[in-house]
Fold each of these.
Amino acid sequence: MKLLKELSKRGKNKFDIEDDINSEVEILDDKYLRNDINIPDISEIELIRHFISLSRENYGVDNGFYPLGSCTMKYNPKINEEVAKREELKYFHPLTSIEYSQGFLKIMWEIEEFLKSLTGMDAFTLQPAAGAHGEYTGLRIMWEYFNEKGEKRNKVILPDSSHGTNPASSSMLGLEVIEIESKDGMVDPDKLFDVVDENTFALMLTNPNTLGFFEKDILKISKILKSKGALLYYDGANLNGFIGIARPGDMGFDAVHLNLHKTFSTPHGGGGPGSGPVGVKEFLKDYLPYPVIENNDEFYYFSKPAKSIGKVRSFFGNFSVILKAYLFIKELGFEGLKEVSQIAVLNANYIKEKLKKYYPSQFDKLVKHECVLSGKIYKNFGIKTLDIAKRIMDYGFHPPTIYFPHIVDEALMIEPTETENKETLDAFIEAMIKISDEIKNNPEVVKNAPNTTKIQRPDELKANKELKVKW
Amino acid sequence: MKFIPHTQKEIEEMMRDIGISSLEDLFKDIPDEIKIKGKLNLPKPLSELGIKNEIENIFSSDIPPKRIFLGGGAYYHFIPSTVNYILNRGEFYTSYTPYQPELSQGILQALFEFQSVLSDLTGADVTNASMYDGSTSLVEAIFMAERIKDRRRLLVANSLNPEYQEVIKTYLKPRNIEIDYIDFGEDGRIDLDRLKNKSKDDFSSLVIQSPNFFGIIEDIEGINKIVKDKDALLILSITEMLSLGMLKPPFELGVDILTGEAQSFGLPLSFGGPYLGIIQTRKEFVREIPGRIVGETVDRNGERCFVMTLRTREQDIRREKAKSNICTNNSLNAIASLVYLMTVGPEGLKKIANLNYKKAHYLKQRLTNEGYSLTFSGPFFNEITVNLPFSYDILKEKLSLVGIEGGVPLRYYGLDNSYLFAVTEMNSREDIELLICALKEG
């Protein structure tokens, strides 16, 4: 496909805008002015065709099954998109006087209430722009808490199955990361006990974890940390695994972040925008970033908590994303949200049961929202999990997450979500079984996959070595 | 409303295949004592029609003034219809981070083009595939400079957006990096003498904003000379990216890292977000830049294609040694800004920028004709700071009578009677006259 630059010719673009000021104004000194703007010059029809063509070379949930583990690629309800694109929002400036933004603040205040209820936490901030931003914010709140108490704790403990953002967020605060080995795919309380001491800042835990397992010893884990004064952080990426069934706030977690773009159905936009609200227990409430929303007899306003960590971004949060999540909760209600996790878990276990003998991993037990299988038995045939992922494309599906978590060799991490029906799952299962046959009988077809996509097996080494990041 | 497609019969079949007798069995590994008993306090579910009616009620209570003179980090600009049209493509907005390039060439090429167009606009060698917003990209730039220079002090121009200053403080406190401020002079620009007095090798970088929080255009070239004499890096933050339609490309003036808020390029104001963070740098620092970068390559058949590149900087590969924790970014908004820039084109961008400049200067003319004075004397783009003889409450009341929102008070600087007004292509001459009238009244 051509690049915009290759379509460009001076004078093609006919954009215009009226100037209703007919008097002269002072001019800006030449030394500040640019000579030329060297961006592509194309006509509107070319522009539309260009981007429509690009969109046709992209695959989203609207195109088909997208079982990318840990990403919760569920259906994005269209009504939510429509509401979030209303005219009122388009031109609503964040610094507009508070008396005009009562409806917006009400939505934010109410969703905080919903999230408190769903997680068992005592207070929320909606400001973080994404999950990792939420992690940073949550840890930063904890940091302020310890700092105020005069405690210099610097160790963050992570299971070896944790998301990469966990250690990266810890590093941003200058904290040291200690990884502990999992036992049967879960945190081993004995090992944890051995590493937790007076220098332990927190344990960051994803629950269900990235293998899809519920951390069954969570209460014991929480006790171990508390006994040394350390805190427990909840990475909410996998909340789809028990939303409406259990709450992190009841498991001993002190701070949590949620990914509205996962559990609460807001779209991922090819990488973002997202939203990563952070919830805390009462004792951390005063440290939340400002502003927080207050409600005085149905009048909503902003205030600054007493010991606030400060601001973590401009304005108040990714409002239009928050709005979509708010609508999702309103559409489903409690029973509907409970059904979300029930069916998400049903789907994940169904896939696991049907595929475990074809793609066995070292674990076989009840999973929550996702299951992790492995392609390691096919290494003998010269087939890597990457090849399997590419072959899945030929069957019309987006591949699962691969090579993560690292503790499963040749991992295939499959998260179907609740919005996929049995027919889709069966078709995917059938394709996966066929691929396993192909590996045994005709491995070349897998090694050479994909065959149906427009481009095939890009040279990533070349991209790195010859680094071309603009035209 | 529910989005679960299963029939009851299918659910039963699936349960049988798994070997369970009820959906509750799927959660038997969760201890009973932490299971939710009964129902949580959440509203009753609504149908699509029910939702629409309720939203109508909520939004109809907020009818803000239609004449907006607010700026200060978010701007009231025209959004062409093409932007929404493209954003509505499900192939784009319902996709994830392009981990599988074969199924993501659309997003990848669009991001490569976004990087290229933004680099063209500012003269940068590298633009990443987007950040959260202008304030958080600035923090990442500061961390970059710290890694490059390995010094524990940072200089910040006090004319930087106060919100951004607050964000920097939050992020730097645990890192033990000291912040030193450079004040502004009567022209509203950074005080060059104070900068000259700073010692060499003392700070990693100087952060400036231009046009700054007061709308004033800084002498970037002059500032850069001094910064380079001190062997430090110059970080430029731009909150009004539209100014680039008129002003010199910053990398030609010596800037090392540019961060920006690109909401002005086709993104709705949306009560504060999501917007679009920009981060750019020169070639030599490419390995220090955070977040995703898309690069060009070829596939096995020699076809040109695009992939995420320099991945070893990122959290999913390098974990605690990553350059940043950023994962989710603002790709869709990056595409929106690309569509915006291509819709207006090079000439249109210049035209809109010039019109913003002209309208803001027309307001200045009208204000000075009426005897009001500007707070600062420096050159400005589309924001203007004016001294008014009344309090913020009185100003708000006067403006609301004629349906105007505007005048951000400069309380942060102790300038109690100074107010910031932004003027864009959306403000008609009539709006400006109305603003003048409102100020004069009473």
Amino acid sequence: MSLSQQIAQFIASGIINGTIYALLGLGLVAIHSVTRVVNVAQGEFAAFGALVAVSLMAAGLPLPVSLVAAVAAAALLGGGIHRAAIRPVRNATPLILLIITIAVHLALKGVLLLLWGTDPYTLRPFTVGPPIRVLSAVLTRQSLWVIGVTAVALIVLYLFFTKTIRGKSLRACAVNPTAARLVGIRVEWMGTLAWTIAGGLGGLAGVLITPLTLATYDMGLILGLKGFVGAVVVGMASYPWTVVACILFGIVESLGTGLISSNYRDAIAFGALIVVLLWRAIATLRVGWIVSEEVAQE
Amino acid sequence: MTQRVWLLGFIVVLIITPALVTGRVSLGIFIFVGLFSLIVIGLTLLAGHAGQVSLGQAAFYGIGAYISAITTLRLGLPPVLGVMLAVTGAAFLAYLIGAPIFFLRGHFLVLGTLGLNIVVDVVIRNVQGLTGGPTGLTGIPPLSVGSTIIAGDRAYYYLIWTLVLVALWLGRNLIHSRIGRALAAIRASEVAAATLGINPAFYKARMLALSAAFAGLAGALYVHYLGFVSPSPFAFNFSIDLLVMSVLGGIAYLPGAVLGTAVLTVLREVLRTIMPRLLGTGASAEYEIVVFGLLLALVVVLAPGGIWHWLAAVLRLDAGESPAPLPKPLSRERKGVGEGGSGATLLRVEKLQKRFGGILAVRGLSFEVKQGEIYAIIGPNGAGKTTAFNLISGVLRPTSGEIVLRNRVITHLHPYDIAGLGVARTFQTPQVFSDFTVLNNVMMGLHRSLHTGFLGAMFGLGRREDARAASEAAGYLERVGMLDRAMDRAGALPFGAQRLLELSRALATQPTLLLLDEPASGLSTTERRELVHLIRQIRESGVTVLLVEHDVSLVMGLADRVLVLNYGEQIAEGTPALVRADPRVIGAYLGDDEVAS
């Protein structure tokens, strides 16, 4: 394979990975904007969704049913965590909420370990068939599923946020929870809804990626962190730009890994995370110390 | 008294422990509890006092370990020098990362340090030429001072536990110092702290560096004790263990750090014997995380104070402390009116604009405040008064326009820098540090005039300066007639008293310009009269006053000049008499229709 072919291949797989990161990044943004929590346990939704899908398949259910049920289960898990672990202590400091999500991450990982053990599992590709050539890159059919399903999910999300009253309420909570409460929006319920959406998106990421890689109980943390990289580039605020940033990050990671060494894959990814955080910090210094009026009146 | 007795008892137990345990393994556990305690003390200082969580302490521990191992093994440096390099190296790296990240308000450090931990782990495993890769390095020399070699379990046991006690002492001094008060103020309200001249990022970054220094020290001691190092103890999982130790012991308590470390280390040993029997051999070590995760969640939700909080109550550890005596009030000579004298322009605001999304909260605001005057901005709700104050004090940054203090452009300065130039402010809703005493609140105003730094504070050098500051603070309280409440909890004060307290805290910064945001709102008629008197007094002492107010009659009787705002636009400026007669002002307050009819 020539270098240009290789690079095309790296970019293609970067886009696929980036799409997965985007699903996780979107969940992080939804949770952070509505409940002001940085959710360390985001990746566990992906691991949970993937493993549930694997078990349902093994129980003899057809693939589409297994997938939909797994995503729904992950969404329920997200909402359930908000009701069980975040809502009861919602007056706690951000520090305590952060520690709680770390605890949730550990506990979920532990539960996954108890239920599924340390073995890696696989899921069969959604459709069978030979790989497809796009320009000079070769793509598996599952890769196209990843992109296609994510695109549909994004459109649904976009319609939800802009056309439905619930979606608009959710955005209102993100902008100003106090004002949202004054106009009669149940902010606590919106928090649960945001966590449910994040859980569903995480589960979707898990079932989409499993046929390409493998599903293990501890796959979540790294995936979630990579979603966070893209989300933080755009300040944990914008849904569409989070998707763009996550895909760009996927490409950078893939090129870096391919051209330098696969041993350094995670070092490149999280080196990028640190660089991005520092870059955001410097950008913040330029626009001002406190950006929102709400904080200024805290 | 009781505290001392318990501390002495603890030290005696530490001294005799090696004589009581036999066999290498058991003393080894005590050594590791000591090593981990050092790291957890640093993490507790960071999380409990700077309010920031790091999930990268294992990385700093590893960096310390490898710096000391590589410099002694490959460069042949004396181990003591290797330890020093390890401590400074870990602290320096932490500072490089922390100093910028803390400008992002919120909890981004946790993800940054988590990423760092993974990067460090990958690098250690892959730079085989330097670190020996996954197999690690062997033959690292033991610590030595001159020709005396420190070797053997007992030697390291005593060395490490001495260092733990020293770390506890340093941490305790730091918490009870000017630095510790600043950190507590930042935790209570970053905005209020910043307007008193405290830069939150500065203090947090130094605390992160300090916690990394403790972790680096532990790492260096670890390699010289074992003579061997490999990457596995420094992986990300250990960072989580360290956090669990800190939270379990009690995140706000330094002795809790040691307690939490001891409990978790013992618990882990117990789990390692029980788990395989319950669940079969497999990956029993992995099951620890289930227990640790649940433990962390339970402690945080049900007992956020941790074990130490409970233990201190049972043993009545705080019973021995007598309340601090009321310091003798001392009033400080004010500096002169400042260069330029009365009548020169002190503050100039030019074409100031602030846009929030689609709303122009302040549009084209321009005015000048002269040295020594009382200048008032009035206007109906939503006129942009408070936003203008936030812009002048640097809490918000303007969309366009310029703010000049004396001859210096301050438009793009941070609130703590503006405070340092002599601008103090109060808030519409008083931002007192509610868990502090009234006296300590005023002492926060004196923060910038005190000089004890991090190192000095750690060695307890700021006590005389603090005593003097307490007297000065009492002096400020006396001026507003609140000396009798100096030792009360600020949060327990009634609203009016909180306003007065905030005002005296602002005065303690020795401002040249004092910004008062609706100082009379929520006050009774008597309190208002006293306030007017007090503001006149403040002006007499040479402070220029800029106030935003709702109460028109109060302003008209007090201010030298008045500016009227309406929907972000200025509609009149001049002496109270002039403004009162302006038809547009009457229109804004009574509605345009009435003017027309």
Amino acid sequence: MSVVDNQPAAAGRGSDRAVAIASSIGRFLVIAVTTYIGLLAVTFFIGRVIPIDPVLAVLGDRAPTAVVERTRREMGLDLPWIEQFYIYVKSALRGDFGTSVLTTNPVMSDIRRVFPATIELATLGTLIGAIIGVPLGVLAAVKRGSLIDQVARIVGLIGYSVPIFWLGLLGLVLFYAKLQWIAFPARLDVVYEYTFTPITGFYLLDAAIQGQWDVFYDAWRHIVLPAALLGYLSLAYISRMTRSFMLNELAQEYIVAARAKGLSETRIIWGHALRNAAVPMVTVIALSYANLLEGSVLTETVFSWPGIGLYITNSLQNADMNAVLGGTIAIGSVFIAINLLSDLLYRLLDPRTKAG
Amino acid sequence: MSAGTVQSRREWLLSERPASRLQARLGRAYVAWRRFSANRLALVGLIIIIALLVVAAFADVLAPYSPTFGDLKNSRLLAPSAAHWFGTDDLGRDIYSRIVYGARWTLYVVILVAVIAAPIGLLVGTIAGYAGGWTDTILMRITDIFLAFPKLVLALAFVAALGPGIENAVLAIAITSWPPYARIARAETLTVRNSDYIKAVQLMGASPFRIVLRHIMPLCISSLIIRVTLDMAGIILTAAGLGFLGLGAQPPLPEWGAMIASGRRFILDQWWVAAAPGAAILIVSLGFNLLGDGLRDALDPRSGDQ
């Protein structure tokens, strides 16, 4: 105590800040590790409650008892469950989720192949949601109770209430079948499937890098509707949260001070209030991104989009549990990481939140 | 009823000095109702939910055809008409009748999830809040872990393991939706835990079990009801999503999500097969969202954004 007291005030504050940051990060690591182990515990449990005996699934039900017993030992199923869980966690950390029955590949290599498609879709969706949702939320807050506020509220409420897969089907009827503005459900036209070599797995980016603008246009025609739908979901969330943050900021005294100084309304709203609302909004956008990763399961199924969501549902139809659980862990890991990182970011960026 | 009695009745309800417990309760309910009914959108929500209850209760009367058997010979995939308001599906079944009976399954899922998940959350939250210490830390860590999971994907994995079916879908959704209730119940418990009336009950020798059950849980109910109502739309959407993926209700149950899935094959030519059940899901979830918003503003004026 006395050591701190003797130091100059500024240095004391600096070290307080450092301690706060260190404890934030420490807390983050503890929570991240326990949550991840929790996720693995749940998937482990799910894998064990399946009514299918894993030994019988491998051998069939005509194998002699001795063989069954040996296989059971080889698969480690005679060990105590805590030891089985330890082995499970160890292999999961190595990225080993077993082999997919359906594709006969290791689940991890399947996931690596399909994940970029999901990331591309979710990223574009979040971009659309943020670009429209933030200004909409700001306008709704500034002109509270006006027509635009009402419209924003209804648009948001419908976004919270609509089954996304249904909206996707209706979108296909309208934009693909009737208006023919967009391409059929897939990632690229068949023509390009064989001439186009992806580098990063993000087709829009790959096509742009290689200067193949016809491919870029084709990829765009395939992605635009599913991305717009996911964008609508995140727009509903982002605009609602933006509105409430902005209302909060606009009620602060510094806004009155800025007005008294004679600043233009535009500057006050977009320069001062929005900038102060920016920190919680980063969190909101990150959370909506995580939600879109999850929402992509249904969207990808409707649009035959070869991402992780379609991979999981295809594996489900074929009772391919390794692939289902591997996919669940993959989405879960990214989801948890984004959730916790945005929380950490919020604590570090916002001077008002102290660690603890 | 004359204007005078209405006037005096209102005065009785709004009295500052209620003479009985009943009067105080009715007065509070009246004030909450006045705030609620001033919100037109919330009233729309209430009407939608009442309509859902009525449709589910009188499905036998309201549905002109059987929900499970159709006329395969004469009425396959008919467009909407006076005889079949929303058309017929590929098995010749009247879609309007199926949607009417589907209201029962929607209610079944929503009520069952609420009945399973809310008490779990209530129990975990009140115990954690009242006990404090290690019990609190461990229970809340578990809650946070579940809160950080992707709900739909986890529900998918659960149903995949348990096997498809509406009961398993309900179970999977309930398992993934209790954590927010535990958080709310704990927060409410912490606010009353050190209050005088709890101390008084403790002095009288009530067991912790009795205190939590009789004196803390009732205080958590109203915030819990608001949160459950707001979650109903999410529950309906998740259940419909599971149905759509073939993991929820199995044919021939007229569950709305599964109906959309079966209409998917005909979506380009016979769009009405999938369109009508989706619209039903949208309207009902919208109703729950509007009702939940209204209840929150009426019962808990702190969190309203007026």
